[in-house]
Amino acid sequence: YSLPFCEENDQSTKKGAAKHKQRLRESIAGDRRESSPYVIYYGVNFEHRVLCKKNYGTDELKIFKNAIEHSYFFEMYVEDLAMCGFFGEIENENVIAQDLMTGTGDGVTYLYPHLDFKFGMNNNKIVSATVHTDMEKAVDISNISISQEVEFSYSVEWKEEDLEWKHRMTKYTNSNFAPRHMEIHWLSIINSCVLVILLIAFLTIIFMRVIKNDFNKYIDIEEDAIEEEESGWKLISGDVFRFPQYATLFCATIGTGTQLTVTAFTVLGLALTGGVSTTRRGSILACGVITYSFTSIIGGYLSTRLFFQMNGKMWARCVLLTALLFPFPVAVVFAWANSVAMAHGSISALPISTIFTISCLYVFICLPLTLLGGILAKQYAKKDLDAPTRTTKVAREIPTETPFYSNRLSMMLISGFLPFTAIYVELHYIFTSLWGHQVYTMFGVLFCAFTLLVIVTSAITVSLLYFQLSREDHRWWWSTFTNGGMVGVFLFGYSFYFYFFNSGMSGFLQASFYFGYMTIISFAVFLMLGSSAFRLSLLFIKYIYSRVKCE
User: Fold this and answer.
1) pTM assigned to the model
2) Phi and psi of 206, rounded to 5°?
3) What residues have CB less than 8 Å from 417, skipping those under 6 apart?
4) Least C-beta-crowded within 10 Å: which of 4, 38, 362, 393?
């Protein structure tokens, strides 16, 4: 225990502060569970039982008072059900004086030594667990110069509930430590879904009318054999399938992004179907790490296949880059954050055993499967891109005069802003759960929101691609990828707003963890949505150029 609470039970042989064996999910989440000296028997109620009596001097009282001033709270687990509460409070505090001066505002500091446990049971299973502090038994520790004897005690109440065990996490939606106003949350999500569907329908109707008119125009020209200069996207038919610069990097980003997308949908699917427990902290993270390792064969296969379709030769370099593109930045950020945590003595620093386990997953599973995917693509994948047009030897000059609303920066902002508005509401709850150590139970909504995000991002990217081709700009490979991935940039920008205005976090340690891991999350979103947008764009280009006769 970092605070001087009771580590032994005066009426039992049970001791606290015994470290539990760490699991991978707990280590990744930064949890370091220790036993408590509280003795509780299933179905046995009692109103008052003494835990221990301790004499506190100036040093111990100062530690307690400082923790209460900084709003420290305790967290206990019973059958993976979290119980949270504050162990002290400051009353009659002068908030203005606290903000303007270094003092605490001369408030009265109370320590709560009594805990009231309440458990719900159904069919011999614990379905709810809460803990409350007793204000009437509070101890005034404002004057730390006087030693005090504090009696810690607790009470237990059991009651039957109709709540089923599989629905036990719904209790947390009404907790003070979980997001409130779920009705507003659901309405906002439904509103976002409706807006996304309307946006896609609007784009589809307008887009198909424009494409149909283009087809009719080009067909009429071919039938009448009118000698006139072509314009628009048909004019660049000989350049549209000209492969991009840095083809190796491009193929690696597409393969890694697709692998991350498959990982995300797999983890969300397992969370929805109960394949992975969402009630245990760190389970989703551990599932993501393991799933990413085993889906490495997908990333290696797809990146190598695309590389061969671009007439690439050094495929081993592409495989290696695919294997390092995402894990390497993660390792750099982790090394920095873990070093900062160790320097500050924080339990968020991962132990050596966990680092060794994750390293073995990468070395013995992730790397070999990525290589295996590359070998399978080399031996069995189709090497032809099936382009409907032939690429000319000399690239066509791209017009330089374009309206301001159709330049690269404007299109990137549009492609990122519109999909971001569809997930803005859900982001608040995700950030609150992720960085506020709260329980997130809305995985069904998250699955729908992520699916709609992928769809609307890809649809908007294709729409912007059409306008790019219409102004005779054939450099669409990297532009579609970056346009789709711009949501990740907006997500990273939102993280700054959340940190400074909503999180309540401060200090170098918290800033290092927050911005380090938000950089990784934003990068992952950039890769996922960029690869999804590119794949739909490739299908779109093949479709429109296969429908008209190009010389």
Assistant:
1) 0.81
2) -65, -40
3) 490
4) 393
